[in-house]
Amino acid sequence: MDTNKIPYDVISHVGNISEKNNYTKEVNLISWSGREAVYDIRGFRVGKDGFKYPLKGISMEKADLIALRDLLINADLGV
Prior knowledge:
Strand order of the largest sheet: 1-2-3-4
Number of strands: 4
Shape: flat
Order of helices and strands: EEEEH
Radius of gyration: 14 Å
Helix content: 10-25%
């Protein structure tokens, strides 16, 4: 599915995970197509027109985001 054609509204920008050239990987609270807002981890590309275009990502409800946070806190990531 081409996310460039799906209307979305960033309700709250949680933060950027990374930035490189014209790309960012972000965590946001987003409403897709006017639906209830969900937490979203997704890449965005800034076009030559200055607009941000969503790339592939994952959307989840708050409970899933909390579960992911807890999983990462307890994970042995070798760092």
